Amino acid sequence: MSQQTARQVSLERAEELKSRIAEYLKVQEDIQTGFKSADTIAAQKKIIMEVLGGTEANWDDWHWQMDNRITDVNVLANIINLSDDEYDVIKDIGQQYRWAISPYYASLMDPDDRSCPIRWLAVPSAFEYSERGELDPMAETTTSPAPAITRRYPDRLIIKVTNQCAMYCRHCQRRRAIGELDKHSTQEQLTQAVEYVRDNPEIRDVLITGGDAFMLEDETIEWLLKELNSIEHVEMVRLGTRTLVTLPQRVTPKLAEILSKYHPVYVNSHFNHPKEVTNEAAVACDRLSRAGVPLGNQAVLLNGINSSAHVMKKLNQELLRIRVRPYYMFHAKVVRGTLHFHPRVETGLEIMEQLRGFTSGMAIPTYIINAPGGLGKTPILPNYLVGWGSDHVMIRTWEGNVVKYPNFEGNVAQNIEVWDDDDED
Ligand SMILES: *Cc1c(COP(=O)(O)O)cnc(C)c1O
What we know:
By secondary structure, the chain is α/β, with parallel strands linked by helices. It is built from 16 helices and 12 strands. It has helices at residues 3-28, 38-52, 56-59, 62-67, 73-77, 84-93, 103-106, 117-122, 175-178, 187-199, 218-229, 243-246, 253-260, 279-290, 309-321, 345-355; strands spanning 149-150, 156-160, 205-209, 236-240, 265-269, 295-301, 324-331, 366-371, 376-379, 385-388, 392-396, 402-406. Strand 1 (149-150) and strand 2 (156-160) form a beta hairpin. The structure holds pyridoxal-5'-phosphate. The site of pyridoxal-5'-phosphate has 8 residues, from strand 2.
C-alpha cells in the first residue's frame, strides 16, 4: 500500500470513528454536571446558609455540616419547592425510614425540578412505602465472625466502624442498620475486630466502612490505621466513604496527612451522577491524591438516575478529571423500600457494551451483581468471546465485528507454527 493510500484509508477510518461518537456529543450537552451547575449550586448555598444561619466558615467546617443536617421537612421546604403531596410523604415516611441531608449535598438539589437526580437520591418518596424486597439480602448478620466484621472472602474483610453517614441515600442497602440514632462501633468492638484480624494471618486487606468511615473523628481513624499497620500480615487498608460526594469538607488537610502516614491506604467513594462531581468534590479528591491515596469509585446502577450509557459515561469521565478511577458499577440490590431504583440486568449490560471502545478503558468499571446471601461479588460482562475451534477463538469487537483469533500455546523448545491468516478466511 502506498503511503498516500494508507493516509487515505486512515482518514476514512477517522471519519467512521467520528460518526461513532456523534450522538454522545449531542446528548452530553444536556447532561447535568456539578461543574456546569456551579452557579446554581452557589446560589442555593447562599439560601441554605441564610435558612440555617451559617457563615462561610461554618460551611467549611464538617462538624457544623453534620450538626446542621436537614432532617425536618419544614426546613427542607425553605430550601427546595415541595408540593403538598411531597411535603406530606416526606413527613410521614420519616416515621419509617430515616432521612438526613448535609447542607452541602442539599445545595446540589435543583429547587424546582422534581426530576433532579440529587433530589431522588436524597429526598424520601412515596415509593419507599412498598413492602416488596428484603431488609438484609446480603445476609450480613450471618457473615460476621467477630464484632463489627463482615467476612465473605478468603484474604480480606470489612470492619464496620459506624452506622452514621452525612446523608442517608434513598437507595441504601443497609437501611435496616441506620436506625433512629447515629452509633459508632464501640472501642471494645473495634478492639475485638482488630484482634480478629491479628489472629487470622491470611487477612492481607482490610476495608474500613460503615455507614461511612470518615464519620469517625481523626483520632479514631488514626488509632485504627496505626493498629492495622502494626499487624505484619495486613498489606493494605481501604476506607469506604461517601463524604467526597456528600460532605467534601470532611477531607481536611489534617485528615489527608493522617492517611498519608499509613500507606498503602486506598479510598473508595460512591459517586452516582455527574452532577455530584463538583468543584468542592474536586478539592477534597485533590487533597487525598496529593497525600498519595489512590481514589476509586463504586457507583450503584439506579433506574432513572444513571441508567443510561450516556449518563454513566459522563459520570466516569468526570471522575477521571478529578483523578478518581471508576472501580465498580454495582447492580442495585433487592432491598425493601428501594425497588423503584431497581434496573434490569439488560440495562447494565447495554451500558458496559457502550463504554468499551467508545471511551477510555480507565473510565470503565467492572459491573457486579452481588450474589444473595453474601456469596460474593459476581462480574457480569457482555459476551465478547463468541466461538471456539480447536486452534482458534472467535471474538466480537466493540463495534460488533466478529473475527478469528489464533489459539495455541507457545513452546520455546520448538518452532512455533505460525497461524496463517490468509488461507482461513
Ligand atoms: C465488597 C467486599 C469486599 C471487597 O471486595 P473487592 O472485590 O476486593 O473490592 C470485601 N469484603 C466484603 C464483605 C465485601 O462485601
